[in-house]
UniProtKB/TrEMBL annotation:
Annotated protein name in UniProt: Vanillate O-demethylase ferredoxin subunit
Cofactors required: FMN
Domain of life: Bacteria
Keywords: 2Fe-2S, Flavoprotein, FMN, Iron, Iron-sulfur, Metal-binding, Methyltransferase, Oxidoreductase, Transferase
Cross-referenced Pfam families: DmmA-like_N (PF22290), Fer2 (PF00111)
C-alpha cells in the first residue's frame, strides 16, 4: 500500500524518524509491538524497518532509520531521496519479534538503532501493566534516539548507558543475576552487543525460551572456502550451477525464476524455499536451530549447500 511521509524528525545526527500516514487519511492496519514493515524504495530495493510507535495508534506508523555509512543502499536512499509529503510503498506489518505471552516481567535491551522495536515493546508493556525496565546503550549522549519519548513516558523504567559517561556503566551480570521462568529478556542492536547480552544471560542461568532477539544485520561470514554446487529445481529439467562467488538466489534468477528478495542477509525469511533432497548449509538467522536441523527449508539469499547437490521446490 502507498503511505505518505507526513513528518520527518532528525532524532540524532544519523537517525531520522519517518511518520507515515495513509494516503487517504484512513486508519492503517493494526500491528503489535515488535512488528516491522517492508519498504519498497525508488532505487528498487526492499528493506525492513521496525515500527517504533505505540500499537494503539492506528493513524500512523513511525520508523527510525539510521543513515549508515556502510549502507547497502536502503538507508541512504530514504535519507537522501525522500521528503515530507512524498509517497512510500510499504507492506502490511508483520511480527517476527513478538512479546511472549508468558512475560510477567521484562528486561529490554537496545543498542543504538536497536531502540526502534524496543520502544514499541515498552509502550505495549506499559499498556498491559507488565513490569519492565529498559536499558539503552549508546556511544554518546547525542546518539540517543527518541530521547523525549523515553524520558517523558518511561520515567523510572529507562536506564541510559553511555560509553563516554562512566557513571552510566552497566554491571550486566548483576542486572541479570535474578530471574524466574516468567522473566523474559528482549534485545536488539548490533550483533556484538546482542551476543554480549545473550552470552551473559545464558551464563547467569537464563534459558533460551526466555531470551528474544532481532537482528538488523546478519553476522559476518567467512566465505573464503565457499565452493560450487548444483541446484536442481523440481519440474525443471536443467541443473543449475551455483559458483563459489554467487548466491543461490542469483543463480536461480539468471535462469528465469522469480525469487522474492528483501533483506538479502537471511534475516527476514522472505525468500524461503523448500528443500526436497540434499543438505543445506544454513547461514540465516531467521530459522531456529531446530528448524535448521530439519533441513527441509533454506534461504537462497545467503545459505548454500553442504552436499554436492540440492534439490528444491519453487
Amino acid at each position: 500500500m502507498d503511505v505518505k511521509i507526513d513528518k520527518i524528525h532528525q532524532l540524532t545526527p544519523s537517525i531520522r524518524a519517518f511518520e507515515l500516514i495513509a494516503q487517504s487519511g484512513e486508519m492503517l492496519p493494526a500491528f503489535s509491538a515488535g512488528s516491522h514493515i517492508d519498504v519498497s524504495l525508488k532505487n528498487g530495493l526492499t528493506r525492513q524497518y521496525s515500527l517504533s510507535n505505540s500499537c494503539i495508534e492506528s493513524h500512523r506508523y513511525v520508523i527510525g532509520v539510521l543513515h549508515d555509512p556502510n549502507s547497502r543502499g536502503g538507508s541512504a536512499c530514504l535519507h537522501e531521496q525522500y521528503h515530507e509529503g512524498d509517497l512510500l510503498s510499504i507492506s502490511a506489518p508483520r511480527n517476527l519479534f513478538e512479546i511472549d505471552p508468558q512475560t510477567e516481567t521484562a528486561i529490554l535491551f537496545a543498542g543504538g538503532i536497536g531502540i526502534t522495536p524496543i520502544l514499541s515493546m515498552a509502550y505495549q508493556l506499559q499498556q498491559q501493566n507488565i513490569a519492565f525496565e529498559l536499558h539503552y546503550f549508546v556511544r554518546s549522549r547525542e546518539q540517543i534516539a527518541f530521547y523525549g519519548n523515553l524520558t517523558k513516558h518511561m520515567t523510572g523504567q529507562i536506564h541510559f548507558h553511555i560509553n563516554d559517561e562512566a557513571d552510566t556503566s552497566c554491571d550486566m551480570e548483576q542486572l541479570l543475576s535474578t530471574h524466574s521462568t516468567t522473566h523474559h529478556l528482549y534485545v536488539c542492536g548490533p550483533n556484538g552487543f546482542m551476543d554480549y547480552v545473550i552470552d551473559t544471560a545464558q551464563h547467569m542461568g537464563w534459558n533460551d525460551a526466555q531470551i528474544h532477539k532481532e537482528h538488523f544485520v546478519a553476522p559476518q561470514l567467512d566465505i573464503l572456502n565457499d565452493h560450487a554446487f548444483t541446484i536442481e529445481v523440481k519440474g525443471y529439467d536443467r541443473p543449475i550451477e551455483v559458483s563459489a562467488h554467487e548466491t543461490v538466489a542469483t543463480a536461480l534468477q539468471a535462469h528465469g525464476f522469480d525469487i522474492p528478495l528483501s533483506c538479502e542477509q537471511g534475516i527476514c525469511g522472505t525468500c524461503m524455499l523448500k528443500v526436497v533432497d540434499g543438505i543445506p548449509e544454513h547461514r540465516d538467522v531467521f530459522m531456529t536451530d531446530e528448524e535448521h536441523a530439519e533441513n527441509n527449508m533454506f534461504t537462497p539469499c545467503c545459505s548454500r549447500a553442504k552436499s554436492e547437490k540440492l534439490v528444491i521446490e519453487i
